[in-house]
Amino acid sequence: MTAALVPAGSTAWTPTRRALRLGWALVSGVLSWSWRHTRWVLLVAALAFLTRLLPDGPVLAEWLLLLGWVAPALVATVWVTFWPVSYRRSVAGPAARVRWVCWARRRWPHLARECGLSVNREQTPTRSARLVGALTTGPAPALPKVWVHPRLCSATARGVTLTLTVRARTGQTVDDLEAVAPALAAAAGARSFRCRAVSPSMIEYDLVMSDRLTAVREATAPTDVRVDAVPLGRRQDDTAWVLPVTGRHTLVVGCSGSGKGSIFWGVCAGLAPAVRAGLVCLWGIDLKRGVEIGMGRHLFHRVATTPSEALDVLAALRVVIDQRGHRMAGHSRLHTPTPSDPLHVVAIDELAVLTAYTDPEIRKEASRLLAEILTQGRALGVVVLACVQDPRKEVIGLRGLFTQTIALRLRSAEETRMVLGDGTADLAPAHRISPATPGVAWVIDEDGTADRVRADYWPDRLVREVATHHPAPALHAHDIGSATLEMEEASNSEGQASAVASASPRARKPRSPRKPRQPRQPRPAPFNGGSSRSGGEAA
Ligand SMILES: Nc1ncnc2c1ncn2[C@@H]1O[C@H](COP(=O)(O)OP(=O)(O)OP(=O)(O)O)[C@@H](O)[C@H]1O
User: Fold this and answer.
1) What ipTM, to 2 d.p.?
2) Which of 220, 253, 255, 258 to mutate to test the pocket of ligand 1 (most atoms within 8 A of CB)?
3) Which residue spans traverse the membrane (predicted)?
4) What residues form DSSP beta bridges with 192?
5) pLDDT, tens digit, 9 for 90 and up, residues 133-168
6) Residues lining ligand 1, Cβ inside 6 A
7) In this structure, what DSSP letter does residue 92 have?
8) What pLDDT is attached to residue 394?
9) Which CATH number fits domain 91-119+147-208: 3.30.980, 1.10.760, 3.30.420, 3.40.50?
10) Residue 361's closest CA among 253, 252, 494, 507?
11) Is 284 in a helix, a strand, or coil?
12) Could you tell me which CATH number the domain at 229-538 has?
């Protein structure tokens, strides 16, 4: 009667419901723990059954069941419910690692055989068998056949990675071992893998057993002044992914929505403290109407949003290369950035617009300038970061000149091969990256191994904040080279006209920015050889 008077959902029912819910959670937790530890539970139950046969057995059996089964199941249920991270770190993680290692050691002969790494050979006869064979007449008895496997030298687990070190059997090479990596990873239930040749006969398989890259991680505003490299995100083993910048030209390829923006801003905004300190000079080419770079415009010394403006930027950098080349010749082989002589980074969003989709004249000139920068700029402190959606376009021609490539989500195995190289479709399957994980990419490390990474996410708010706090300083003539500045002034004065010309539907043939300036622009005196080409062409 009282219950009927209490309306459903009233507070009087809340404690009862909570208790019921808690009880059910505990029971289901204990049951699921028991299901996952069936063998242990059966062992405890069998021991308890045997214990009952002893004098005072029933009491002992109850204690055994309580301490061996119910108590651990309850503790685990409560721990994992309220402190999942600590449970994973202290219990589930170590237990899983022990399980993986035991599994690999126990199953290695079977795995090697099933993956095609083993051979079935006749057993080598022992010395005594050979002696008996020599003394007896008649046909020699058939020798039994045995399986010969490559040797599993070690199996270790760290974090979420199971590492197997394997030595090739006689007649095998590391290439044979590498070829079966996908099958091995599939047999182990690994989420991804990488393999590394340790020596001509030994290979290390890293099997990543749990995916740490599913969660989105937001980038944090950089504080350290770093020029050599920028942290971009994390690797699949949860270690930091740091991209070298100095002396590298970086090509980022990924279809629309694959997260190129995260890498673009990871580099540009990651260099922001160095930009503010004057050690890095950022040049932006955003051929998607300036939408991307507009977010962090203050970071950039100069931005081009049309193909003809982009030509001006490339020509200016070409002059920087000429000047530095003359200055460094005979003194230094590698440029060291200083506030008066910074590292120039040209960040290009949608390279294909410049090298494939624009007028043939601009396309040709842009490809020529880019090729010169890509081949000569590395040691002279001028590096390129280029993003592109479609690797099949003309960018292919320049692809070989980039010194590091990041493959975000691609459309096909063929694209993966184009971007990362032959034989990478299995080892670095960028075409299998899920559309639900933008920012995930495959990279080929310096040692030639492929690794899966995920860039941290750069929201617009953070980009704006970083750009506002680290604006590019106003550069003086000696900072970037007098010729560059002269060209820049000239191109600025003509920028409006060229932009209008390139935007106008009637202006089919855009101005070549290099010719009209020639008569007006005096050559920088000290650089006769270099300026004769770049100064003249750029002007
Ligand atoms: N590192 C990341 N982690 C999580 N989500 C991301 C990440 N990077 C991008 N995203 C999400 O994916 C969306 C698309 O990203 P982004 O604009 O960078 O792609 P894109 O490759 O530049 O595409 P497009 O070439 O069409 O401009 C973003 O709006 C964002 O929501």
Assistant:
1) 0.96
2) 258
3) 37-54, 63-85
4) 208
5) 777 766 666 667 888 999 999 999 988 899 999 999
6) 216, 254, 256-262, 389, 438-439, 455-457
7) I
8) 60
9) 3.30.980
10) 507
11) strand
12) 3.40.50.300
